[in-house]
Design a protein that fits this description.
With 428 residues, this protein is of the alpha+beta class. The chain contains 15 helices and 16 strands.
């Protein structure tokens, strides 16, 4: 088996890669003398993938909302019991998550890495769905959905997405709705599993100080019955999403002491992945720090006027078919915060961004990026996320170094517009 090794001198990091006969791509980022080890087994499949052509079929089907998350729950169940107990016996921590675009299963341990790795690979590749265990899970997930419905922080975010998007499935809760999960059955689960959990659609990323060849041997043995089915071309269907927003103001009342708000800017610069998408993400994150970070003129003004507190922050999420920036926090007057932000953005567009601030934030971003490589969790999570976007975590630094003030000014004009923002408020 051929192992490809690439070195990244600026970061002082190495990347090992092997493509297995089963079709699985496996990556290892060695961290010499680190006691902790981390493995993440992921599929390029999330809550947005509700309409697709199942493997070995010709007609598209639409499955109930929330099925990717439901499937993640069910994979932990085996005929002999629950997989958590096996990891517990091995002294490791196991978890999983589903987001809009991927599902990941992971463990972290200090000892018995290869034994843990074997359990991870085997359980993800061995689904066990029955009518009874599917019905039982519905009650558990219904409780989870109701819990999120009562969470002010989740609700203010979820409503913000609904305000930005008309039809795109990102507007739907990852767990689905109480009504949608009632429609899930084992047949739907197997169709989703057999389509999206093909090894060609998955990636295994491992970080830590261990023998990569021995790890590959463990993975190969665990997958010995799996053979690559060749090129993967899953046909997924998403509704056509208009560029304009759906609803500009969304308000709700929940148990909060002070109003919460999310201001969302819908991205209209879409349709690409890889380095171009990564560049856009880095540009947007630098912009958000420049405009709304704790050292910005706007932050100081809002804080001094008593309009925000230290919960104020921002984030950008970007994919090929959707993207948005969200600025949020607590405020006694959320609409006044929005008004101040819009006026400030117009002023910055006229006067231009401050070059000194740009250089400082760029240096800070480079520093944080280098520091992030001390975290094995960060490496595995970020590497996987970028891999599914056809981008590389190891290109991040090169792209960041080449971003100019002019790039940021163009992104500012394109992204922070007067016609693409919404505000979601949760009032007491």
């Amino acid at each position: 088996m051929k192992i490809e090794v690439s070195t990244h001198d600026k970061l002082n990091e190495k990347l090992n890669f092997a493509k297995l006969d089963s079709g699985l791509n496996v990556f290892h980022i060695p961290k010499k003398d680190y006691v902790e080890k981390y493995a993440m087994f992921s599929t390029n499949y999330g809550s947005n993938d509700n309409k697709f052509i199942p493997v070995e079929e010709t007609e598209a089907i639409e499955v109930p909302e929330g099925i990717a998350h439901f499937l993640e729950h069910k994979l932990f169940e085996e005929p002999t019991g629950n997989i958590f107990a096996k990891f517990s016996e091995l002294g490791s921590y196991v978890n999983a998550f589903t987001n809009f675009n991927q599902t990941s299963y992971l463990f972290t341990c200090t000892d018995k890495f290869y034994e843990n790795l074997e359990v991870l690979v085997k359980f993800v590749q061995n689904p066990y769905f029955t009518d009874e265990n599917v019905e039982k899970e519905k009650g558990i997930i219904e409780q989870e959905i109701r819990m999120y419905d009562d969470s002010p922080n989740w609700k203010v975010f979820s409503n913000c997405l609904k305000g930005m998007y008309h039809y795109h499935p990102v507007r739907i809760d990852i767990a689905g709705t109480v009504e949608s999960i009632k429609k899930i059955n084992k047949e739907f689960l197997y169709k989703c599993y057999n389509t999206f959990y093909r090894l060609e659609n998955m990636v295994l990323v491992m970080v830590g100080d261990f023998d990569f060849e021995k790890a590959l041997e463990v993975v190969n043995n665990a997958l010995k019955s799996s053979k690559s089915k060749g090129d993967l071309n899953i046909k997924r269907f998403y509704p056509k999403e208009p560029k304009h927003i759906n609803e500009s103001i969304l308000e709700e009342r929940l148990q909060v002491s002070s109003p919460l708000f999310n201001i969302g800017f819908k991205d209209i610069d879409l349709g690409y992945d890889g380095d171009m998408l990564l560049k856009k993400e880095i540009e947007t994150n630098i912009l958000l720090d420049l405009l709304f970070g704790k050292s910005s003129e706007l932050y100081q003004k809002l804080y001094e006027d008593g309009l925000i507190n230290n919960t104020f922050g921002s984030q950008y999420i970007g994919h090929k078919d959707y993207g948005h920036s969200i600025i949020g926090g607590e405020s006694v007057e959320p609409k006044k915060v929005l008004e101040t932000i819009i006026k400030y953005l117009e002023k910055i567009k006229i006067n231009g961004l401050n070059e000194t601030d740009f250089i400082r934030i760029k240096k800070k971003s480079l520093g944080y990026h280098i520091m992030d490589f001390d975290s094995i969790e960060f490496i595995a999570n970020s590497f996987t996320s970028y891999y599914f976007k056809n981008a590389s975590l190891f290109e991040y630094m090169n792209i960041l170094e080449n971003i100019s003030l002019e790039d940021l000014q163009k992104r500012l004009e394109k992204h922070f517009r007067e016609d693409n923002f919404v505000i979601s408020i949760v009032n007491p």
